[in-house]
Structures are given as structure tokens and as C-alpha cells.
Amino acid sequence: MKGLWSNIMQALGQKNARPKAPIHNEEERAGLRRASRFNAQLMDFLRPQVKAGITTLELDRIAYEYTIDHGHTPACLGYKGYPNTICTSVNEVVCHGIPNKTPLREGDIVNLDLTTIVDGWHGDSSETFLIEPVAEDARKLVQVAFDCLYAGIDAIHPYGKLTEIGRAIERHARVRGYSVVQEYQGHGLGREFHQEPGVPHFVPKLNPSTVVIEPGMCFTVEPMINTGTWRTMLDKYDKWTVRTMDLSLSAQFEHTILVTESGPEILTMTEHGPKQGHQF
Ligand code: MF3
Ligand code: CO
Ligand code: CO
């Protein structure tokens, strides 16, 4: 009887249980590091080219060629039917903006979101760029989004709770008068582009995650921060572009994080990108 009961309980538990986040061993961590390193180098290559006058489609082609020339695979291209190599999200576009032929203009803010597959491993990062000169409200938003990323990363502790990431991000944004997008989250990645754990950038009122952060987990932190409402809408024609509901500005930064025994290791960083404490 005891056996039967525990079998039933186990079956009930499994019905509601989510698949567990993969824990990567040393060899797998080396694969993750290489993929993210390349992704960060791609960002380094693009960064000086993000200027007024260039189109997001030109940036997309540059990213495609750099990736292919190095023998790697653009992860977004063809992913669930996505048509391009990178996502380019301008001004009120929250995420998943499709590159197009409109030149970037002074005053724009544009997020480039890059994901590459290297030897089967994924690296994912994004950065928001200011096409100077920009208005002070745009600069402030980008600053808060950048600082939110680091508030989230600083809340990552081995054997701590995953919900602390969202709590720290939400606090940082809220007290400064900004809102946090809820429909799109960070995600585990590795052999898969999107897997467990889901990483909310806020604390859900319903069913907050009970995940404990463990060494060997790899996931992104990628808060999307808005000047107006947190609510978003999906473009009904292309079914990809996500905009703020009130068309207020949105900014985002993303890093791929490996949790090690001694804390979070930011994998998608090189010496050239903006570092914690950077002032825009
Ligand atoms: N890079 C995005 C993320 O951070 C995902 C883009 S999926 C695509 O998760 F299909 F739009 F490319
Ligand atoms: Co991304
Ligand atoms: Co991501």
C-alpha cells in the first residue's frame, strides 16, 4: 500500500512538474563559454557600426556574414520561422523587431539582440545603443535598463532563489518610475535556445517560481524596461514585432550567465562592451 500511495503521489507531482533546468558539467561549461564568447565578439564587431544612416537590415547582413565567415550558425534565422539573423528593436519596439530598410536616425535608441550557435551551444546577448544626440528621457531609460540587468545579475547566488532576480529588477525600475515587461522573460539556454529555467524580470503574483539556482545552470537575464505601461502588443501583420501598448520607449540589455560554485559568471562579455557602472 505504501508503495502504491507513493506511486500515486509521484504521478501527481509529475503532472505539474516542469522539466528541470539542465546542470552543465565542466566540459559542457567550456562549450557554453565558447559560444557566448563568440556572440560577444560579434557584438564588439557590430558596436562601432551602429550609427545614424545605417539600416538595421545592413547590420543584419553584417552579423550574418561575420557569423558564417567564422563557421558558426545564426540561431534566430529560421527559428520558429523568424526571417533574420538578429533582432533590431527601435524606440517603442520592446523586442523581436525585424531588420528593415529604414536608416537609424539621431535620437533613436536601438536594441541589437544576437544569438549564435557554436558547436551546438547557444550564446545570447543584447545591447541598446543611443544614436546620439538623444533626448534625456531616452538616455535615462537606457541607463535604468542597463542597471536593471546588473541588479538582476547581482541577485544570483548559488542555492539562492530564482525569484530574487525579478525582485531586484522590479525594485530598481519601479522606484525610478519605470515599468518592467512581463510577457517576455529570460530563459535557460545551452544545447537548446530556450529551455528551463524561465527567468521572470518581476515577481509574479500567481505561482512564483520555486526554482533554486544551482551551479551548472545557464540562463539569460534580459529585462525589458518601459517609460510608460508594461503592457505590450504583438504586430498583427508580421507576428514578431513587440511594441509597448502606449508606444512609449522601451530598452533592454541581455547577458548569458553561467552559475558557478562561486557565483554568476557573465559569459557574453568582452573587454570592449559597457561594464557594470557604465554611464550612458
Ligand atoms: N534573442 C531573443 C532572446 O533573447 C530571442 C529571439 S527569437 C527570434 O530570447 F526568433 F525572434 F529571433
Ligand atoms: Co536575446
Ligand atoms: Co534571450
List the topology elements:
Layout: H1 2-16, H2 26-46, H3 56-69, E1 73-74, E2 87-90, E3 93-95, E4 109-118, E5 121-130, H4 136-154, H5 163-174, E6 179-180, E7 186-188, E8 195-199, E9 218-221, E10 224-226, E11 232-234, E12 242-244, E13 250-252, E14 255-260, E15 263-266
Antiparallel strand pairs: 1-4, 2-4, 3-12, 4-5, 6-10, 7-8, 9-14, 10-13, 11-12, 14-15
Helix pairs in contact: 4-5
Bound molecules: 2-amino-4-trifluoromethylsulfanyl-butyric acid and cobalt (II) ion (2 copies).
Please name the defining characteristics of this protein.
15 strands, binds cobalt (II) ion, single chain, three-stranded antiparallel sheet, alpha+beta, disordered N terminus, binds 2-amino-4-trifluoromethylsulfanyl-butyric acid, 280 residues, four-stranded antiparallel sheet
Describe, in plain words, how this protein is organized in 3D.
The chain has five helices and 15 strands. Strands 1, 2, 4 and 5 form a four-stranded antiparallel sheet that branches. The protein has 280 residues and is an alpha+beta fold. It has helices at residues 2-16, 26-46, 56-69, 136-154, 163-174, and strands spanning 73-74, 87-90, 93-95, 109-118, 121-130, 179-180, 186-188, 195-199, 218-221, 224-226, 232-234, 242-244, 250-252, 255-260, 263-266. The protein binds 2-amino-4-trifluoromethylsulfanyl-butyric acid (MF3) and cobalt (II) ion (CO) (2 copies). One cobalt (II) ion is lined by residues 124, 187, 220, 222, 254.
